[in-house]
C-alpha cells in the first residue's frame, strides 16, 4: 500500500506544467525504449502510414500515445502492422520468448476476442506448462471503457476476463502519474502484462515527474482516507468514486477510496485492513456485474473480513447488458458519482447490532 | 527422386537413420505401453512421419527455433531433446523435461531451440512470427520453423501468420505436415485449394514435399533455410505423409480403409526407404545398421524403465512457475 504522496524520494517534478495521461504513457515508452534496445512497439497504426505515400507517423496509435516514437526509434522498433490481432499479439508474445521485450497495442479491448487464444492459452501458460523454462516479458496495451458514444463493440471493460487467467498480470492506471509509473513497471516485468488504458482518461492531466519511475504491480493507492466506508474502485471509476467521497464529506460521511491499480496481482491486504476499520465496503467497477472484479472483491471481504462488516457489501457496476449507443442510455449504463453516493448512503446507518 | 538433390554425407545418412529409428521405436514403445499398462494422458504418435521432422531439423543449428504441434515427440527427438527427460515428462514423473507439468502435448526445451509444442491447433504459428522477428531484430542469423498439421493449416492464426511473416519478410518456415486427416476429417476435403498456391498467394515460395522420403524433405528444407538465412523471407513446405496410428491412441481410426496402414508400412515406410537407399549405395553395412537398431532399442527401453519407476513430482510443484515473480 502507498498513499497519495506519490513523488519518488527526494525529487519534485521539475516540469512546471501538468501533462496528460496520454503524454505520460508516451513518455514512459520513449524513456524505456531509450534505456533498453530490445523494446519494440507494434500494432495497428502505432505510427501510421506504413506503405503509403503520404504523411508518416500519421496517428501515433489510435489515441496518439505513440506519436513521435517513429522519428526517434525508426521503423525497426516502431512497427505498424497489418490488421490481424492474432498475429500481432502472438508475434509479440513469441518475440518475448526470444530476446525482445515487445509492447504491443491492441486498439480496443473488444478485439481481445480475435486474439484470445494467445492471451488465454499461450503467453500465460508457457512458464507453468514448460516447467519454468520459458519467460515471456511482453506488455499488451489496450483501450477500454465507455463514454465516447462508440457503442457496444468498442466500449466494453473486459479486464475481469483476463484477471481470471493465472499467469497474466492486469494493470488499470487511473491517473497520469500512475499511467507512467505502471507502464514502466509493466515493461520491466518479466511476466506477460495486459495494460488497460481508459478511453476517457487520455486527456486527464496530472503532475508527472520527468525522470523514469516504476510503481510496483500489486500495490494499491489510497486516494482518500475516511472512517465510515471503504470504496474500492478501478481505472476511471477512481475519479467517479473520489467525486462521490468528496460530496459525501460535506454530509459528514467520510470514505476511504482505494485504487488497487492492478486487478492481478491484487493488493488484498490494503482492502482488508481498510474494511477492518470502516466495517463497510462499496466496490465500483465499469465492467459487467457477473464474475467480475467487483464480485471478486466482495467475496474476498465476505470470506476474510466478515466479522468486521457492519452492513451489506454494495457493488456499483455496469448492468448485465452491453454498452448502448444513444447518449441517454450510455450515461445510464455507466456507474456515476451519484450512484456511488447512493450506495454509500444506503449502508451508512445500516449497522447491525453486535 | 527425379531431380538433383543435395547429397547427404555418410555421417548425415547415419544421423538421419538414427533419428528416424529413435522416433519410431520411441513412439511404437509408447503405443505398446499405453495398450498394456496404466498410462495417464493422451498420446498423439508420429510413427510414419519421421522423415519430416528429421529432414527439416537436420538443416537447423543452435541459432534456430522451432514450434511444434500436439504431435510433438518426433520434432523433440529430431531437435535433440534428452530422451529420458522426454519420457519422464510423458509419464508425468519427477525429472520430466517440463517438471511433469506439460505432458505429451506441452513439451519444450528452449536450450535446444524447441520453444514449445502446442495443444492448440494453429496456436503456435503467430509465435513463429515472433521468434523470426526477434532473430531479425537481434541479428542472430537464426530462423524460426513452425510445424503445423493439415487441420492447423485452415485456422485463422495460421493464415494470419503467413501474411504477417510475408509482409515483414521474416526468416520463418511453415511446415505443413499433411497426414491426410485432421482427427477423422480428410484433408483432401477440408483444405480448400492448394497449400502451395496458398503460399504463392501470400507472396512466398511453396513446395510440395514427399514426406515419406527424407531426401526430399532435407532438400526442400535446405532450400527454405537458405532463403530465410539470405534475407529472402518466409517459405512454406507442404509435406505429404501419413501416420501409422489413429489421431490419438485408443480411439477409432475407421475412416481409413481396412489394410491401408499395412499397405503403407509395406510400400512407403520412410525408414525402410532410407535403409534400402543406404544399403544400395553401399554407404553402410547391414551390421552397422543392426548396431544402431540395437543402441536405439536399449536407449528407449532404459528410458521407459526409468520413467515407470520414477516418483511423481512433489505436490509443491503445483503452485510454482505460474509467474516469474508475483507478490
Can you tell me about this structure?
By secondary structure, chain A is an alpha/beta fold. Chain A folds into two domains: 13-206, Thiamin diphosphate (ThDP)-binding fold, Pyr/PP domains (Rossmann fold, 3-Layer(aba) Sandwich), CATH 3.40.50; 221-347, Rossmann fold (3-Layer(aba) Sandwich). Helices cover 34% and strands 16% of the residues of chain A. Chain A has a seven-stranded mixed sheet, sandwiched between helices. Chain A has a six-stranded mixed sheet with strand order 1-10-12-11-14-15, sandwiched between helices. In chain A, strands 2-9 form a two-stranded antiparallel sheet. In chain A, strand 7 (169-171), helix 6 (176-188) and strand 8 form a beta-alpha-beta unit. The longest helix of chain A is centred in the middle third of the chain and has 18 residues, at 112-129. The two termini of chain A are 30 Å apart. The model of chain A has no long low-confidence stretch (mean pLDDT 95). With 327 residues, chain B is of the alpha/beta class. In chain B, the strands form two sheets. Chain B has a five-stranded parallel sheet with strand order 1-2-3-7-6, sandwiched between helices. A two-stranded antiparallel sheet of chain B has the order 4-5. The mean pLDDT of chain B is 97. At the A-B interface, helix 3 and helix 4 of A face helix 5 and helix 6 of B.
Amino acid at each position: 500500500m502507498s498513499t497519495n504522496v506519490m513523488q519518488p524520494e527526494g525529487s519534485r517534478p521539475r516540469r512546471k506544467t501538468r501533462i496528460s495521461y496520454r503524454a505520460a504513457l508516451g513518455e514512459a515508452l520513449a524513456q524505456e525504449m531509450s534505456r533498453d534496445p530490445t523494446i519494440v512497439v507494434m500494432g495497428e497504426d502505432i505510427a501510421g502510414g506504413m506503405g503509403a505515400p503520404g504523411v508518416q507517423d500519421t496517428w501515433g496509435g489510435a489515441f496518439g500515445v505513440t506519436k513521435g516514437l517513429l522519428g526517434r526509434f525508426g521503423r525497426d522498433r516502431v512497427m505498424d502492422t497489418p490488421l490481424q490481432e492474432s498475429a500481432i499479439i502472438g508475434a509479440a508474445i513469441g518475440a518475448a520468448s526470444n530476446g525482445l521485450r515487445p509492447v504491443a497495442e491492441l486498439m480496443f479491448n473488444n478485439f481481445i476476442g480475435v486474439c484470445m487464444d494467445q492471451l488465454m492459452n499461450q503467453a500465460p501458460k508457457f512458464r507453468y506448462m514448460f516447467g519454468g523454462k520459458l519467460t515471456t516479458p511482453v506488455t499488451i496495451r489496450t483501450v477500454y471503457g465507455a463514454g465516447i458514444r462508440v457503442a457496444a463493440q468498442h466500449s466494453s471493460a473486459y479486464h475481469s476476463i483476463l484477471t481470471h487467467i493465472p499467469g497474466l498480470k492486469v494493470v488499470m492506471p487511473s491517473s497520469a502519474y500512475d499511467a507512467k509509473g505502471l507502464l514502466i513497471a509493466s515493461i520491466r516485468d518479466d511476466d506477460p502484462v495486459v495494460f488497460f488504458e481508459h478511453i476517457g482518461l487520455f486527456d486527464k492531466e496530472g503532475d508527472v515527474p520527468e525522470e523514469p519511475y516504476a510503481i510496483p504491480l500489486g500495490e494499491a493507492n489510497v486516494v482518500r482516507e475516511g472512517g465510515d466506508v471503504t470504496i474500492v474502485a478501478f481505472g476511471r471509476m477512481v475519479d467517479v468514486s473520489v467525486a462521490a467521497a468528496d460530496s459525501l464529506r460535506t454530509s459528514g460521511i467520510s470514505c476511504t477510496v482505494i485504487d488497487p491499480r492492478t486487478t492481478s496481482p491484487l493488493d488484498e491486504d490494503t482492502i482488508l485492513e481498510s474494511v477492518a476499520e470502516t466495517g463497510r465496503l462499496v466496490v465500483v467497477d465499469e465492467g459487467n456485474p457477473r464474475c467480475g472484479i467487483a464480485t471478486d472483491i466482495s467475496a474476498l471481504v465476505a470470506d476474510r473480513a466478515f466479522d468486521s462488516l457492519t452492513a451489506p457489501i454494495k457493488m456499483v457496476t455496469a448492468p448485465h447488458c452491453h454498452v448502448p449507443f444513444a447518449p441517454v442510455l450510455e450515461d445510464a449504463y455507466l456507474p456515476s458519482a451519484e450512484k456511488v453516493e447512493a450506495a454509500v448512503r444506503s449502508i451508512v446507518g445500516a449497522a447491525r447490532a453486535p | 527422386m527425379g531431380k538433383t538433390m543435395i547429397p547427404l554425407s555418410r555421417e548425415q545418412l547415419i544421423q538421419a537413420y538414427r533419428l528416424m529409428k529413435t522416433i519410431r521405436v520411441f513412439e511404437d514403445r509408447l503405443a505398446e505401453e499405453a495398450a498394456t499398462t496404466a498410462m495417464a494422458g493422451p498420446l498423439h504418435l508420429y510413427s510414419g512421419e519421421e522423415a519430416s521432422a528429421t529432414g527439416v531439423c537436420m538443416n537447423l543449428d543452435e541459432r534456430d527455433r522451432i514450434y511444434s504441434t500436439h504431435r510433438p515427440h518426433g520434432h523433440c527427438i529430431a531437435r535433440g531433446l534428452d530422451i529420458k527427460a522426454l519420457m519422464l515428462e510423458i509419464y508425468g514423473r519427477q525429472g520430466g523435461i517440463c517438471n511433469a507439468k506439460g505432458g505429451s502435448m506441452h513439451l519444450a526445451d528452449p536450450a535446444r531451440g524447441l520453444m514449445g509444442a502446442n495443444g492448440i491447433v494453429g496456436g503456435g504459428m503467430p509465435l513463429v512470427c515472433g521468434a523470426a522477428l526477434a532473430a531479425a531484430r537481434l541479428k542472430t542469423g537464426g530462423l524460426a520453423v513452425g510445424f503445423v498439421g493439415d487441420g492447423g493449416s485452415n485456422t485463422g492464426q495460421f493464415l494470419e501468420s503467413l501474411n504477417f511473416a510475408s509482409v515483414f519478410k521474416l526468416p520463418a518456415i511453415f511446415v505443413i505436415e499433411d497426414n491426410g486427416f485432421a482427427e477423422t476429417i480428410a484433408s483432401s476435403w477440408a483444405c480448400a485449394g492448394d497449400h502451395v498456391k496458398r503460399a504463392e498467394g501470400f507472396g512466398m515460395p511453396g513446395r510440395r514435399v514427399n514426406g515419406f522420403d527424407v531426401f526430399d524433405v532435407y532438400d526442400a528444407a535446405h532450400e527454405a533455410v537458405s532463403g530465410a538465412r539470405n534475407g529472402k523471407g518466409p517459405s512454406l513446405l507442404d509435406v505429404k505423409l501419413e501416420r501409422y496410428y489413429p489421431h490419438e491412441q485408443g480411439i477409432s481410426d475407421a475412416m481409413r480403409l481396412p489394410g491401408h496402414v499395412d499397405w503403407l508400412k509395406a510400400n512407403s515406410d520412410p525408414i525402410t526407404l532410407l535403409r534400402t537407399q543406404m544399403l544400395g549405395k553401399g554407404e553402410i553395412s547391414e551390421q552397422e545398421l543392426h548396431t544402431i537398431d540395437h543402441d536405439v532399442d536399449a536407449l528407449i527401453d532404459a528410458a521407459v524403465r526409468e520413467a515407470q519407476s520414477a516418483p511423481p513430482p512433489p505436490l509443491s510443484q503445483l503452485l510454482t512457475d505460474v509467474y516469474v515473480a508475483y507478490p
